[in-house]
Amino acid sequence: MSLFKSLVKLTAVTSVAGAIAVSPIFTLKAEALTEVQVLERLGSIPVFTITDEKGAPLLGSMPQQPNAKPDDSQILFFFLGPDEAKMMLNQVQKSNPDVGKKAQIIVRSMNEAYQVIRDNKDKKVVFQFIPSKSSVDSARTILTSQGIAADRIPNVPVFFATGGQANSQGLLTMSIDQNGKREQIVPFFLDQTDLQNLLDRARKEQPDIAKTTKIQVTSLFQVLDSMVTKDNKPNPDVERFQFVPSRTAFEYILKNNQAAAPQAAPAPAPRTIPPAPANKPK
């Protein structure tokens, strides 16, 4: 399935108000997932990267730490929010105008990003996923309210909801159309605001459920890890997990006419973006 079709299907989740419920996840009838199937779920998550005019990703230099040995590694960023990608593009254009004037933002799926990482043979190239600032701020607020230290914020936060009575706590589930059938899913949102908007709309029609529902945060990578056991056997209890991309990312893709299925991401070119020159002391 193309990235665009996945986005259309899953972004529709954020507009549903009357089909949510809170159920213990272990009561859901589920089929098994393999590791490959789990990674396919990442096809619905768009990532943004900076490339040259030919579509080859631009690599940045690793920050040099004081009193540390020189590090000639290069880094490739995958941004989960378009705003952060645009900030990086602006930085490239200012620090290296010759490269920046031809640089562009390209949309890939996170599944493709993982393929690039797996296929990379250059040990000097490192990769980093950059979440949106808003998701990090939301995660910090939630964890702080729970008495958890700010340094425990997940690298890539995802948001989900729990609720129910004390003796029947469960995860928020939703009924959506999957290939012509109504199926129950457990949504994990990349943007806390989208989940909150969903709960606000649901509160009007299902106040009993909505008023007992709380938003929680965890790491995307922990969710992925929970979907397959350590011996690579599927975990049937979490087959219903689905990732919902941010509406901001979806709207950016539509606005910039990048709705077609993404092409296979090219291997990183051995091209480093020089860092911005340091300010001279006054």
Automatic annotation (TrEMBL):
Residues 1-21 form the signal peptide. It comes from the Bacteria. Residues 259-282 are annotated as: Disordered. Keywords: Signal. Residues 265-282 have a biased composition (Pro residues). One of its GO terms (biological process) is protein transport. The keyword rRNA-binding does not apply. Pfam families: Tic22. This is Tic22 family protein.
